Structure formats: structure tokens, C-alpha cells
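Quick start: read one record
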Amino acid sequence: MIQLKRILYPTTALQQGDEALPYAVALARAYDAKLLLCHCIEPVPMTAEVGWMTARQDVRTAAQLRGLLPACDVPAVQVLMEDGDPAVEIPRLAAEHNADLIVMRSRRRPRAAALLGSTAEAVCRTAPCPVLVTHEAEREWVNPHDNTIALRRILVAHDFSNDAELAFNYGLMLAQEYQAELHLLHVLPFASVPGMTTIPESQASAMHQAARRLQSAVPAETYLWCEVKHAIRCGQPYREILTYAEEQQIDLICLGVSGAGFAMRALFGSNADRVLRQAPCPVLITRPLKPLFKTGETS
């Protein structure tokens, strides 16, 4: 069973509110995990005046972070301050403190992100642990007033890879914990042909084979406590994932990514990038738990 012992919550926009904080708090409370609040400050050209203003800003930011503590209501909280690029420092801090999960907010900048990439996307590519990304104007499953979790439908995009298996394990854990529906979706790279009334034999065979593999991926005992739904779709993976999530009113999408391919297609956007930018609900990007740097054990 997957365990969450340390959850890292990075914030780079305290003045805009901390909309993702309820997710970090709710999960920390549910799994009795330590919550790490961190703020990364990008370096600026140093002058005597700027240096004084930066120091004053550091004090104000630290005070704001500590001001969040009463709202956290979790057993253990630690405040971290770091200078540097958030896209670099957040994964480094996660590795240094052995974080099991990063929870962060994406500001949804689809046009800018398509060329430059958002901080959340950059973190998802290099984080040493899974990343839960929330967005504005999405389907919420954490009550911000009392930090309770109401997770009803979880979608796992399964392509039968090791990365997808990890995403499935997280989806299964959460479905079991909250008695949520578990949806497994596999997308075949067949383009639909307008006017076609019958499915080609090769495509039908691939669909049947994929359906059998999806069924066998679920342990038999899962059906005793969880409603499991399987779906096979044809087309572009990101588009079918988004469409299915809308149609089924999914609360959480779980995606497995292998760092190399995910990063190499950053310019035009991989399937994971596009799902992150357009998802109607939070997205959990799962990655193997491994350190980026050699560090000692952190309690």
C-alpha cells in the first residue's frame, strides 16, 4: 500500500491566495503526514537598495507562510524558504526532504505554457515523487472550509506501461480510501473515419485485447468494495482523456509519465502537458519515488 509521510506544498504567489492549500492539508490530515510549506524567491540583480528590499520581502513572506499554520490543522508542519528558480528548487526540496507528494496550483496559461511551459509542468517533468496539480475553475473535491475530502470518481489513463501501473496504484489507493468509482481508460491510436459503419478487423481485435488487459489489471477483490468501469477509446490520447473526464464528471485524473519522453516534447506539449492545461479537475502526475540528489535521511 502506498503511504504518504511527507507532503510538500510550494507557493510562489501568496498575494493571490493559496487555493491548493486545502488539498495539501486534507491529504496530510488523512494520512497523518508531515506538511512542508515552502516559498521560492527568484534571485534579482543585487544593489544596496534591492538587497534591503529583498531581505524585507523575505521576512514578510516568512511571516505570511507562518500565518498559514493555524489554518493547516495538521500534526507536523515545517516552513521552508529558498532562493532560486521554483522549477528547479521545488524538485530539489522534494528530494532533500524525501517528500512523497507535491501539491501545487497551476495558473492555466495555455498560450504561454505551450511555448515556455508553466512552473507546474516543469516540476512534473523532474520531480522525484508524484505531483498533484490543481487549477482554477475546476471540479473541486476538497471542501476549503473544513478540509474534508469528497472524492467520488477517479480516472486512470492506462497504457499498460510501468508508469501507468504506478498511476493505477495511486488511483486504486484513493478509490479504496474514499469508496470512489474507479475508471480505467485505454486509448488506441486509431483515427475515426467519417461515415464508417463497421470497425476494421484489426481495430476490433486490438480493442478486445485492450479490454481484456484492462480487466486483468484490476485485482479481483477490488470489485468487492469499489465500482470499476473500463473504457476503450480511439483517437488522440489527451483529447480522449479530457472528453471522458468531462462526460463522466471525473474528480481526479491519474497519469503516469516517464520523464524522458515527457520532457522531450515540451515545445509542442505532450499528452500529459495538454491534460494538465485543460483538465476539468485536479490531475495527479505519478512518478517513481527516487532522489534527484544524494542526501541523508530527513525526519
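The chain has one domain: 6-286.
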